[in-house]
């Protein structure tokens, strides 16, 4: 039995089968609609349209079920979650039942009045994405003219209202050389946390990999800048630094390990262990319309498939890091090796690692192709 399974049982319930420990957090992808078109969006290529989205009552019920399951945090995300008119209602309900609420937003649709309503509803924290410190390039990457200025205005109101703020800065070859400015910008906006997150290559990021991949020299410089800024801004701003897997020696524990800490609910109610799990052939996902969340967490075929360590091949199976990184990312293993059950090729022990590094080196040194912007495909 892996660490993902708990053997803590109530006294006198010796017959009760041990289930997985409860998840820490749930991500509500309220909608795939979004005014921005970032080419590294983690949403799937086939986006869900508005008519397929869950209604308010169902989202409310899922909040209750998440709370009963032991979830502590709810992240309202998308697409852009503020396209939903019921966002305040959902935040209020989550706050009422004691969940920590975080809004992950592009920020361009929220005016001051709406932000005040969200704060009154009980919003604890806001995570604002920025594309660059340079307004013109930020608007180009996001595919939305005037977006950067709107984000700056929102960050000002967040500070005035007194909400906790994280700035999320996805990094890639088109903005990495301004990392120092981006850090200064986040600090000047009063962010308590900055996520310097090199783009991860799944969803739209995988489609745009050649357009986004930095060189190793860019990455090494960025790592030095983050380390220096971390020391300089200690006690002022916390840094989360996510390196691009393609240049790593060991993979990250994607989602904290498959079905260990997090679950995502898509706009139509599919419950997923990560953003990109739908790309894995043969996995069957449950829907909150059909089963309670606790049952899905404990019994969903898709969750059980890569939970823990039993599924692991060598070299993971006998590796001392198997309960640290949980074998890395299943979706990346699939994308690169064609097998979701393979060792993540970000790991230097994977037989596919050298090919992954060669791919990154080659793509980062060719002229960047134009972005394939995130858009709904014509039906
Ligand atoms: Fe992680 Fe597997 Fe690599 Fe070990 S062999 S470091 S468990 S990915
Ligand atoms: Fe699916 Fe990493 S994105 S496991």
Structural commentary:
With 379 residues, the chain is an alpha/beta fold. 33% of the residues lie in helices and 12% in strands. The chain has 13 helices and nine strands. It has helices at residues 56-69, 87-96, 112-121, 135-142, 147-161, 179-188, 204-207, 209-212, 216-232, 293-299, 301-305, 330-337, 353-365; strands at residues 25-29, 73-77, 100-105, 125-129, 164-171, 193-198, 238-242, 262-265, 271-272. α2 links the parallel β2 and β3 (100-105). α2 (87-96) runs parallel beside α3 (112-121). It is globular, with a radius of gyration of 21 Å. Residues 1-16 have low confidence and may be disordered. Residues 250-251, 315-316, 319, 321-322, 325, 327-328, 343-344, 347, 349 line the site of iron/sulfur cluster.
Distance between the termini: 46 Å
Structural class: alpha/beta
Helix share of residues? Answer: 25-40%
Radius of gyration: 21 Å
Mean pLDDT: 92
Shape assignment: globular
Per DSSP, the total helix count is 13
Assess the beta-strand content as a share of residues: 5-15%
Element order: H for helix, E for strand: EHEHEHEHHEHEHHHEEEHHHH
The neighbouring-strand order within the major sheet is 7-6-5-4-3-2-1-8-9
User: What's the story with the biggest beta sheet?
Assistant: 9 strands, mixed
Low-confidence stretches: 1-16
Count of extended strands = 9
Task: Name every ligand kind in the structure.
Answer: iron/sulfur cluster, FE2/S2 (inorganic) cluster
In short:
The chain is of the alpha/beta class and 379 residues long. The chain is built from 13 helices and nine strands.
């Amino acid at each position: 039995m892996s660490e993902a399974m708990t053997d803590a049982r109530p006294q006198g319930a010796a017959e009760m089968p041990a289930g997985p420990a409860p998840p820490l957090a749930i991500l509500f992808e309220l909608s795939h609609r979004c005014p921005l078109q970032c080419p590294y969006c983690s949403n799937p290529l086939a986006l869900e349209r508005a008519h397929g989205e869950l209604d308010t009552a169902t989202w409310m019920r899922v909040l209750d079920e998440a709370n009963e399951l032991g979830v502590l945090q709810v992240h309202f995300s998308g697409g852009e979650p503020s396209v939903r008119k019921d966002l305040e209602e959902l935040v209020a309900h989550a706050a009422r039942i004691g969940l920590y609420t975080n809004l992950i937003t592009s920020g361009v649709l929220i005016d001051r009045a709406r932000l005040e309503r969200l704060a009154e509803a009980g919003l604890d924290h806001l995570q604002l994405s920025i594309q660059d410190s340079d307004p013109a390039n930020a608007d180009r990457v996001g595919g939305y003219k005037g977006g950067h200025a709107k984000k700056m205005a929102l960050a000002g109101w967040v500070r005035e209202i007194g909400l906790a703020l994280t700035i999320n800065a996805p990094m890639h070859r088109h903005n990495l050389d301004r990392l120092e400015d981006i850090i200064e910008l986040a600090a000047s906006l009063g962010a308590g946390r900055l996520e310097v997150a090199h783009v991860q290559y799944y969803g739209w990021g995988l489609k745009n990999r050649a357009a986004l991949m930095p060189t190793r020299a860019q990455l090494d410089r960025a790592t030095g800048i983050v380390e220096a800024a971390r020391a300089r801004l200690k006690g002022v701003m916390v840094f989360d630094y996510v390196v691009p897997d393609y240049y790593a020696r060991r993979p990250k524990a994607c989602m904290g390990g498959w079905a260990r800490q997090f679950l995502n609910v898509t706009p139509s109610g599919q419950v997923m262990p990560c953003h990109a799990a739908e790309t894995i052939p043969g996995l069957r996902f449950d829907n909150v319309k059909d089963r309670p969340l606790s049952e899905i967490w404990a019994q969903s075929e898709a969750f059980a498939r890569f939970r823990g360590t039993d599924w692991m091949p060598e070299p993971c199976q006998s590796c001392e890091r198997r309960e640290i990184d949980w074998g890395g990312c299943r979706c990346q293993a699939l994308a690169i090796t064609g097998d979701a059950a393979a060792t993540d090729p970000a790991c230097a022990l994977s037989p596919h690692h050298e090919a992954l590094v060669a791919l990154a080196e080659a793509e980062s040194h060719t002229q960047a192709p134009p972005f394939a912007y995130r858009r709904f495909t014509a039906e």
